[in-house]
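User: Just a sanity check before I run the rest of the batch. Below are the structure tokens for the first item. I only need the designed sequence back.
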């Protein structure tokens, strides 16, 4: 089971630090392009580029927007991390 939290911070306010489950941690610049129900995300830190391709479905309900995100392909990310990043980006876009 994965649990993820999202917050907005100034990039200089925090320094990423790897724990015992990772060799390194760093801030990445995120770019996302959505065409229809397909979402392509690219993350780069100047040295490394990670890519995610997903299918997104939105259902508008009385309670808000319900998202369904299916991972199609990812490069450089582990497990369901691409889905986690996409869900956070989509929720942030919806809330604006």
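Assistant: Here's the designed sequence for the first item:
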């Amino acid at each position: 089971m994965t649990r993820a939290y999202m917050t907005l911070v100034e990039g200089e306010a925090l320094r990423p630090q790897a724990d015992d489950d990772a060799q390194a941690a760093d801030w990445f610049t995120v770019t996302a392009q959505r065409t229809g129900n397909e979402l392509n995300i690219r993350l780069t830190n100047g040295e490394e580029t990670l890519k995610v391709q997903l299918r997104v479905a939105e259902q508008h309900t009385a309670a808000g927007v319900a998202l369904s995100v299916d991972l199609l392909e990812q490069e450089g990310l582990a497990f369901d991390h691409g889905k986690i990043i996409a869900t956070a980006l989509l929720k942030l876009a919806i809330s604006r």
